[in-house]
Write a structure and sequence with these properties.
16 strands; 8-stranded mixed β-sheet; Rossmann fold
Length: about 425
């Protein structure tokens, strides 16, 4: 049977973990933040890690933010085979209030530890010039490996504090002994760590980081975009009938997102007379190519008539699809803070999801959806059947989902960053 997670949620803004000391520095100027991350949208990949961009755009209202977002010189992992895509990306551009640099860097494929060395070698000159010409108070980085490891090395070389945000890939990388050692090295030398879930906070502490230097700051949601749309109009947009049961599975077409498990679950329900249409929103990315396998599962389960591949959806299209759906299903095997769950709730759509990452905190009770055990096809089927037959209070779900905004996230992140400014490299 489906099981629900913890009864206390972080969506409503509860502070988790102690905040680092507050040392804002001179009142005459704003905090100067230099973000170093390979995970930032660019003109060729507008859907690349939008949650990183959202946090930084809102942080820019409180601090002076500049971003160094390296792009691969030869993009071995490009899902469309555009290996030389970096030459279409401008070296320097403005993204709203933020100056973004996209230096090209060479790296060996396969995610080897040499990536850290290559990132460091490419960026050390840029970091030193930024500090000398524009001034930098703190370096901010996202994902502990490889970005965060390189960022900590860069910060130490420049005599600056570094704050790294753990977002979910760290648990998988920790299974590789050398990567784990590098992550431990960086984690204990960072001025502070931010984690998007309590699971990641416990992981950070397991690396040897004092609990006082780790703070959980869950992601937010853009409440000006993610809110319920008129249901019938949304259904007409996707040619869905008014009484048609609809499930949406959203995320990159990679194995760990579990789209194929959702297909199998709905196939099993259809054989029992519970039919539903499945909308799959997403595309392949540099983390994997799995669309053919998902389509094969569709054929094997006899669901060809009931499954639609929508491809990449922009925010407005995704909101319409979520508003049209009866339930969102996320059958992931690993997550940090899955934004698609947060966004669906903000749209008033109940969620059935596997209990990985922050999911149990995001769905604290049966009024918002159901949490099931990862890998349990039986639990997934039972939860979907129950969710599709229930009359949900979508207005209450939306109020709950919209309780935590990116403005709140930015304030909490600013507290951490300003608390480390002036500390120097440790």
């Amino acid at each position: 049977m489906p099981r629900n997670g913890h009864q206390r949620s972080t969506l409503e803004g509860a502070r988790v973990g102690p905040a680092p000391r507050d040392a804002r520095g001179p009142a005459s100027r704003r905090l100067r933040v230099l973000t170093i991350t390979c995970s930032y949208p660019n003109p060729c990949e507008p859907g690349h890690s939008p949650f990183v961009r959202a946090r930084l755009q809102h942080l820019a209202g409180l601090a002076e933010v500049r971003v160094i977002a390296p792009v691969p010189l030869i993009d071995w992992g490009n899902p469309r085979g555009r290996f030389w895509q970096s030459f279409l990306i401008p070296r320097r551009r403005r993204d709203g209030p933020i100056e973004v640099l996209h230096p090209k860097w060479a790296y060996p494929p396969g995610g080897t530890p040499a990536n850290v060395a290559c990132l460091y070698a490419r960026l050390i000159g840029l970091v030193r010039r930024f500090r000398r010409r524009a001034g930098v108070d703190v370096i901010d980085s996202h994902f502990l490996y490889p970005d965060g490891v390189a960022a900590v090395r860069l910060a130490r070389a420049a005599g600056l504090p570094c704050v790294v945000t753990l977002r979910g890939n760290e648990l998988a990388n920790a299974e590789h002994p050398l990567r784990r050692r590098l992550m431990r090295w960086a984690a204990v030398r960072a001025a502070a760590l931010i984690t998007v879930s309590e699971e990641l906070r416990r992981f950070a502490i397991s690396l040897g980081v004092p609990a006082a230097r780790v703070r959980t700051v869950p992601n937010g949601v853009d409440t000006s975009v993610f809110y319920p749309r008129e249901r019938q109009a949304s259904r007409e947009r996707f040619s869905l009938g008014p009484d048609e049961r609809v499930v949406i599975s959203a995320g990159a077409l990679i194995p760990r997102k579990g789209h194929h498990f959702v297909v199998r679950a709905l196939g099993a329900l259809a054989r029992r007379g519970v039919e539903a249409t499945l909308l799959i929103a997403g595309e392949e990315n540099r983390d994997g190519r799995f669309e053919k396998q998902i389509r094969r599962t569709v054929e094997e389960t006899g669901m060809a008539r009931r499954v639609r591949f929508l491809g990449f959806l922009n925010h407005e299209e995704l909101v319409a699809a979520m508003s049209a759906a009866d339930v969102l299903c996320l059958a992931s095997s690993a997550e940090g803070w899955p934004n698609v769950v947060h966004e669906a709730l903000a749209c008033g759509t109940p969620v059935v999801a596997t209990g990985v990452g922050a999911v149990p905190d995001m769905i604290p009770g049966g009024d918002y959806g159901f949490v099931v055990a990862p890998g349990s096809q039986g639990e997934l089927e039972a939860a979907l059947e129950k969710a599709l037959s229930r009359d949900w209070d979508r207005e209450a779900i939306s109020r709950y989902g919209r309780a935590r905004s990116w403005d709140q996230v930015a304030k909490e992140v600013f507290e951490v960053l300003s608390g480390t400014a002036g500390a120097g490299a440790e």
